[in-house]
Amino acid sequence: MEFTAKKNNNASCDLTITFSPQEVETAFKKAYEGARGKVKIPGFRPGKAPLEMVEKMLGDSVMDDAANIMLNNAMSDIYAKLEHKPIRVPQFNVESFDRKAGAKAKTTYDTKPEVVLPKLKKIKIQPKEVKVSDADIQKELEGMQKSMARNTLKDEGEAVDGTDLLEIQYKFKEEGKEFPESSQVGKFQMGAPQNPPGFDSELLGMKLNEEKEFNFRYPDSFPASPESAGKNFIYHVKVTALYKVSYPEIGDDFASEVDGSANLQELKDKTKKQIEELFNGALKRKSMEEAYAEILKEAKFVIPESLIIEETDGVFHNFIHEMRLPHISLADYAKRLGKEETEVRSSFRQMAEKRIQTYLLKHKIGEEFKITLSDEEIQAGFEKEAISQSTSTESRQKEVKKQKAETFYRDKFLFDKIDEFVYGEVEKKSPKSVSTEEAEKLFSGKE
Fold it and tell me: What is the pLDDT of residues 260-319, one digit of tens each?
């Protein structure tokens, strides 16, 4: 047996294998041996007939089996000698297969993707850090204050005030339609920011067990209920319970009740630190995204087309699953959108290429800079995962093992370490200070 392998510039390799007549004959013998147990020859139990009789009976009908045996054995023999290894079992085209002249088979197989890294220190990013204002801290304190609200049942005869909590029995209809037969019950917090503008004023002054019917027109733009925007409704409301909502005064006693802080200033300092940690962690992740985007622009990739096709299908099926859509093909999904399949596939392909490139890039950085994980770091990673899942480390590890997701989490922990390495390597300008409002716009992609 002889072989030649020629590397192509598209992450593939052309492989040609030639076999001698003796090797072809040996493959036939093995095929006959494999078929002996299935052949029925009069006078012999299955598998006990002489090989010569099996050969005479089957002739060249076992040619395909012989070719497969020969090629499988050949790949086992030459795999270690191949400079560029296949990433999946090659599919051969057998050009000739003759017991007297020998055989010849060819294939073009996919090889590992190739990545060339740019100089990480030449990559420049603009980190950002949050500047927490007194207003940000006050907003958080008021949120804590609201969570500690106390509801006191108001006396009969007292009227609805602008900050009261109501229990109501109600029904409503769009103008021109009929009321539903039964009413609904619920709670309504006066002054809540999600309330439709002007709705609260219709309830002001009502008393316990009082009923009222009124017309209400929703604003032309009302994101909380777009289907109601600009429409007129008729409401019938009865107040079944009425509570005065009171909040603790924001002071030293309030701080002690929240988390045992010695005074209000200590609670403010803790709150400021928590806001900074939350926003700066997210801003750092945003900077990492920017760093990788720049690295991806400068890096060079050679990726087998088959991998991109597989990943494109995977991205599409994940999308279908996340959107809870019925399981359909990409072609059928394109028809639903009224678009060409090539256009829709192209959008998923772009996402797939970026995912593959990012994955390969991180692995290449880890390989080139010899970044590995110790057992202690893996354990620390699971401990962190357990905290985020509010469970024990042992339980989290058992669940991961049950799901056979060990490789996924090892990659995750390794990539976290690689991210930290990359962030330390790239050139960073002096951090730019941003407000919490500006940071939130960055996170939402509005800036």
Answer: 999 999 999 999 999 999 999 999 999 999 999 999 999 999 999 999 999 999 999 999
Q: Are 202 and 195 in contact (CB under 8 A)?
A: no
Pairing label, strands 211-217, 232-246: antiparallel
**Rounded distance between C-alpha atoms, residue 73 and residue 77, angstroms:** 6
CB 275 within 8 A of CB 130: yes
Please check whether residue 173 is in contact with residue 234, taking contact to mean a CB–CB distance below 8 angstroms.
yes
Distances in whole angstroms, Cα of residue 335 to Cα of each of 328, 340, 342, 344:
11, 7, 11, 10
Cα–Cα distance for residue pair 255/249, rounded to 1 Å: 10
H or E stretch covering 96 = strand 93-98
Determine the Cα–Cα distance for residues 145 and 204; give it in Å rounded to an integer.
24
* Nearest Cα to Cα of residue 361 among 114, 121, 127: 114
Task: Identify the band that residue 445 occupies on the pLDDT scale cut at 50, 70 and 90.
Answer: confident
Contacts (Cβ under 8 Å, ≥6 apart) of 403: none
Tokens, residue 106: 């060819």
Residue 267: exposure state from Cβ atoms within 10 A (0-12, 13-18, ≥19): buried
DSSP 3-state of 241: strand
Token duo for residue 179: 């009321």
- Residue 225 and residue 229: Cα distance in Å, rounded? 7
Q: What is the pTM of this model?
A: 0.73
Q: Give the alpha-carbon dihedral of 38, 44, 49, 53, to 10 degrees.
A: -100
The predicted pLDDT at position 446 comes to 66
What pLDDT is attached to residue 447? 63
Closest CA to 359 of 428, 321, 407: 407
pLDDT for 323-360, tens place per residue? Answer: 888 889 999 999 999 999 999 999 999 999 999 999 99
* Residue 37: pLDDT over 90: no
Looking at the DSSP bridge assignments, the partners of residue 17 are: 3, 105
Instruction: Look up residue 176 and give its two tokens.
Output: 């021109």
Question: What are the tokens at 330?
Answer: 């990409």
Give yes or no for residue 122 having a pLDDT over 70: yes
- Provide the CA 393 distance to its chain's centre, in angstroms: 23
Give just the sign of the alpha carbon dihedral 137, 141, 147, 152: negative
